[in-house]
Design brief:
two-stranded antiparallel sheet, 2 helices, mainly alpha, 2 strands
């Protein structure tokens, strides 16, 4: 008879159930975060490759002409 009361008491306690709920919810959030990170990571790598390709083809001019004053800089340091 005493064993039955211990089992009933164990069955009625909810502290462990709440802990299990939090563990399951936390695992789900971590799983969703990992899945989102995997998707973002692949797209980020592709985008950074495109940016690097564009910048490699960019040309930087060392000279400029100010159209208002007529000043021309030919890229030397003796301005």
């Amino acid at each position: 008879m005493m064993k039955f009361f211990k089992i009933k008491k164990f069955h009625d306690e909810e502290d462990g159930a709440v802990t299990v709920d939090w563990v399951v919810l936390t695992a789900a959030v971590v799983g969703l975060g990992a899945a989102a990170m995997a998707l973002i990571r692949s797209q980020t790598g592709e985008l950074s490759g495109k940016i690097a390709e564009y910048l490699d083809g960019a040309k930087v001019e060392k000279t400029f002409t100010d159209t208002e004053s007529g000043f021309t800089n030919n890229g030397t340091d003796d301005s």
